[in-house]
Amino acid sequence: MADMVSLSSKPRPGNRRKRKALLPWLYVLPALLLTGFVIAIPTVGTLYISLTNWDGIRPPEFIGLQNFATLIQDVQFYKALKNNLIWLLLFCTIPVSFSLIVAVLLSRVRRGQMFYRVTFFLPYICSTVVTAKIWSWIYNPFFGINKVLEGWGFTNLPLWLGDPDKALFSVAFVDGWRYWGFLLILFLTGFHQTDRSLEEAAMIDGAGKLRIFWSVIIPQLRPTLLLIMMMTMIWSFAAFDYVYVMTGGGPGNATELIATYMYKEALQNQAPGYASSIALALALFSGIVIAVFGYLRKRGWEI
Amino acid sequence: MGARLFTSLSRHFFLILVLLFAIGPIALLFINAVKPPEEFQVSPFSLPAHFTLENITAAWNMGEYGRAYLNSILVGCSTVAIICIAGGLCAYALAKMDFKGKGGILAFLFLCVSVPLGMFLVPLFYMWQKLHLMNTLTGLIIIYSAIFLPLNIFILRTFFLGIPKELSESARIDGCNEGMILMKIIVPIAKPAFLTVALLAGLYTWNEFFFANAFVQTEALKPVSTKYLTFVGNFSSDWSKISAAGLISILPFTVIYMFLQRRFIEGVAEGSLKG
Q1: What is the pLDDT of residue A5?
Q2: Among A117, A129, A135, beta carbon nearest to B229
């Protein structure tokens, strides 16, 4: 009897310990199941599908690296890649510097700072589908901004979205219009963590405004700046929304980006195998960016 | 003093120009939505001389926005609920519990945030067809819950990390078990963080269209974002109505944003600085 009691009561602490070890896993399980099911498994799937010739209906046929062989000779892909690189250069310079300048100005404004901040961020809150259409209308040569400019006496106005040489810049401008407010918020958060007394000390030492900006503010902002660069690069490679809604990649393929090209191949051209190899190329570029920045972060953001 | 006033004024002048640039296009949408179509034809860039709600009611009916709103609200609320529960539990375990594999889970979640959406679109598309989740709101809810989860887990985890250990330890001494500590101590303190997460997830869900466009083609099931694309396709020449439909699409979150600006702004900043 005594043995029975000790036997039945003995496993309890062990059970409790086991339950305690299991509990965290129970908590993380729903999140892991969801992300695993929607993100991880299909991502691995993409790796496999990229090695097949598949029309989405019949069983996929394994063809090795043939899709990638096609990809590196695909003129359309190179056009998209080139557009993506232009996009990246534009975004890493114009919205980043513009939002930094506005952030510096704004940090010196006492009255109305919150008001400015809220309105500058509004484009980011609004649905991209809707703002894309507003801008399509503004760019429309028959009743948009050109009408106003004509009224002011301007002639030979660009066709904006209709002109293959200007369409990419026109769309990028709109995406930049939405994006810079987001960067502004990050810069202002970064400012918050900087030491204002250093600026005052530099001012007392007789440093000019530009000097303070370059030698006091920028070095302190370096982690924020690098993070912003990383995010901007990753997003530039994945850019999709505005091109899809405003031009669909056209005119011709003047505004085609890697993401829109992939979307088309996957869903309209019934070539999910080939689309998967494009997706992998896209992931490769983001992977490189993340790896480089991960390395820099380990080194304490020193360049 | 004079020089100071001058710099201050020129600063504001520049900022007001920037402000016009930022909200000009959105203001254009608002004014053309409440302007009679005849007036729009003549002066699309000026303030409305006559105010009308006709465009808006017409667009609401023509675009079947009642149904679209219902779909978006259903998808949004379900996604937010799932993210708060699954994300909250996961973030709590990652912040407050010690167990093997924690680092691995964090790394996995970080990978999930960094993977471009296109990287899993294709297989997901065919999985959803096989599972009959294509053209269903359930399918959309599952996708949104998963893609917005990692970011929100990071936000919640950061908040949980800031809660002192003493609180849960004293509760444990008082005889609370882990579940009770989470529900009675942590959740009430973390209410602001949950609100931020709910707002962000709600906003992203409301505006999302990459997946909505590919996964829901049935008109009656379309959420507000893709319904707008249908509307534009059907009434492409009538800009008054398109403006009205645009206004209908962005109004709910514009209004919520006006009231809870700080929380949105801080949430977005925190989310990306953590991710």
Answers
A1: 42
A2: A129
| B260 part of contact set with chain A, CB < 8 Å | no
Contact A214, A125 (CB under 8 A): no
- Percent of chain A past pLDDT 70, that is, above it, reads 93
Chains A, B: CB pairs < 8 Å: 249
Per-residue pLDDT reduced to its tens digit, A89-131:
999 999 999 999 999 899 888 888 899 999 999 999 999 999 9
CA distance A99 to A95: 6
B122 CB within 8 Å of a chain A CB: yes
Mean of the per-residue pLDDT values for chain B? 91
CB contacts of B226 in chain A (<8 Å) are 129
Q: According to CATH, what is the number of the domain B56-274?
A: 1.10.3720.10
Residue A47 lies in a domain: no
Give the residue ranges of chain B where pLDDT is below 70. 1, 274-275
Instruction: Write down the mean pLDDT value for chain A.
Output: 87
Taking residue B60's Cβ as centre, other Cβ atoms within 10 Å add up to: 17
Task: Tell me what pLDDT residue B205 has.
Answer: 96
CATH number of the domain enclosing A142: 1.10.3720.10
Q: Are A205 and A68 in contact (CB under 8 A)?
A: no
Indicate whether A264 and A153 sit together in one domain.
yes
Residue A246, token pair as written in the block: 């405003």
Q: Say whether residue A41 is in contact with chain B using an 8 A CB cutoff.
A: yes
Q: Within 13 Å and on the Cβ side, how many CA atoms surround B21?
A: 16
Q: Which residues of B touch A128 (CB under 8 A)?
A: 207, 209
CA distance B135 to B178: 40
Domain count across chain A: 2
Residue A25 domain boundaries: 2-39
